[in-house]
UniProtKB/TrEMBL annotation:
Originating species: Sphingobium indicum (strain DSM 16413 / CCM 7287 / MTCC 6362 / UT26 / NBRC 101211 / UT26S) (Sphingobium japonicum)
Name assigned to this protein: TIR domain-containing protein
Residue ranges of the region described as Disordered: 150-172
Domain TIR: 1-142
One record GO biological process: signal transduction
Amino acid sequence: MISVFFSYSHEDEQLRNQLEQQLAILKRQNVIATWHDRRITAGEVIDHAISSNLEMANIILLLVSPAFLASDYCYDREMQRAMERHEAGEAIAIPVILRPCDWHGTPFGKLLATPTDGKPVTQWADRDQAFLEVTKAIRAAAAKLGPQQRELPAHTFSPMQSRSQSLAAPASRSSNLRLAQTFTERDKDHFKVETFDFIARYFEGSLEELQARNPGIEGTFRRVDANRFNAVIYRGGKALTRCTVFMGGGFMNGIAYTANETSESNSFNENLSVEADDQMLHLKSMGMSFRGGAGEKLSQEGAAELYWGMLIQPLQSR
C-alpha cells in the first residue's frame, strides 16, 4: 500500500481535512494510507515520529500556502527532505497549492503542481472540484509507483528496516477523526470584509484585462469607500453595463449587487450572505439573478465570478 505523508501548516488544517475526505475512496480501495502529525499519540517523540513517517512515505504532499512557506519546520525540514528524497527517486513529492503565495521560485517550483495549472484551491469556485483534481493526481502518482509498493500492507516493513523505524510506526486507526468547527460572529464579519475586498480586486483586475483584450472597450472601476465600489463598461464611449457592489445596508447585511450606479443600500439585484457549515465559511446567494443558484456554497472566487458574470452578461448576449 502506498504511504502518503501530509506536510502542512496547522493554519491550513481545515483544508487538509477537506482533502483527506476526498482521498477516502483511495483508502477504501487500499491504494493509499495517509499520515500527518495529528496521528501522533501521547508518549511519542514528536520530531522522531514525523521524521520516521516522512522517511517511509512513498508520496509526500506539500500543502503550500503563505503559512507553509513561513514555517521553518515545514519549509526547512519537511520540504527540504521531501525534495531530497524526490530527487533521489525514493519518493514522489507533489505540491498542492492551497492558497495564493509566491511558490514558483522555491525548490519545488519546478515540479508540476496540483490542482490544474497550480491554481490555488481557495480560488476555485467549487473546492470539491479542486480537491478532486488533487485526488486524481495522487491516484496517478500511486499508479506510477507500481504494484510492488502495494505488496506490503500499511505499516509493514521489510527486515532491512531498522528496529527504531518499526517502533516509530503509528498504530492502525480510523481516518474518520474530523471534528465539527465553530465560527463566531467576528469570524463571519471578518470573512465578509475579506470577501468584499477580494471581489473589488477581482473586478478591478478583470476590467483592466477586458479592456486590454478588446479594442474599443473601456472599463472603469471606482472605489467609493470601504464598503462600496462602482464598475462601468463602455464601448465606443457608450455605457453598456454598470453596477454597484456594496456591503451591509438594508435588511440583509450581506454583500449586494445592483445593476446601476447608486449610493442607496435599500435595493439590489442579488445578495450574498456569509454562512458556515461544520468545516468552513462560505457565501450563499439568494438566487435572485439567473446566474445565482440559491443554496450553493460559494468560495470567494465563486462569489466574485457570480457578480462579474452579472456585469459582463449584457456584452456577451449581443
